[in-house]
Amino acid sequence: MKNVRLAVCLVVVFVSTASIAHADLDGFLREVNMQAQADMKNFRVKLSSQFEVPLSQVDSIVMHVAAPADAFMVLQLGQMANKPPEAVLQTYQRSRGKGWGALAKELGIKPGSPEFHALKRGELYFTGEPSDGGYGKGKGKGHNK
After folding, report:
1. Has residue 58 been placed in a domain?
2. Which residues have a Cβ under 8 Å from the Cβ of 14 and sit 6 or more positions away?
3. 130 φ, ψ to 5°?
4. Which end of the chain is more exposed for a tag (fewer CB within 10 A), N or C?
5. 95 found inside a domain
6. What confidence tens digit (pLDDT) does each residue in 105-125 have?
7. Res. 38 pLDDT band, cuts 50 70 90
């Protein structure tokens, strides 16, 4: 029984400290939700640090979205679209159920742009470290993985 507990603890520690990147957006968001479920306090602190917003603002966003990964996406799309999180949250609430691609378009992220491609491929990163965008490969912003 101790070995099982130890294994679970090691997995939680690995997941909470690892940078998350996946081949598709749904997979990425599942991993972000798992990380939040494992340690919500650390999740909130990492969001605050990565997107350089006060913890109180992160808490407000988390309270107004359906899942923890949605809070990440509100902040990520705000960074990509150069919009304040409050504006993205309003668009999220108004456009619920349309999908992240549709929300990105509403926020002015053009289909075909590096940001839109990174979003669709799930080339997003949840490291807890401030970045210059934290998304995408190749050309464009966010080479710091």
Report:
1. yes
2. none
3. -55, 145
4. N
5. yes
6. 999 999 999 999 999 999 999
7. very high
CA distance 25 to 30: 9
Q: What's the DSSP call for residue 110?
A: P
CA torsion sign for 128, 94, 26, 15 is: positive
Residue 103 lies in a domain: yes
Provide the H-helix boundaries in 52-95: 55-63, 68-81, 85-94
In a domain, 134, yes or no: no
pTM across the whole model: 0.78
Question: Under the phi-then-psi rule, with left for phi > 0, alpha for psi from -120 to 50, and beta for the rest, what region is 96?
Answer: beta
Q: What range does the domain containing 106 cover?
A: 2-121
Q: What is the rounded (10 degree) CA torsion for 81, 82, 87, 92?
A: 30
DSSP annotation of 112 reads T
* 1-28 per-position pLDDT tens digit: 655 554 444 444 444 444 444 458 999 9
CA 98 to chain centre: 18
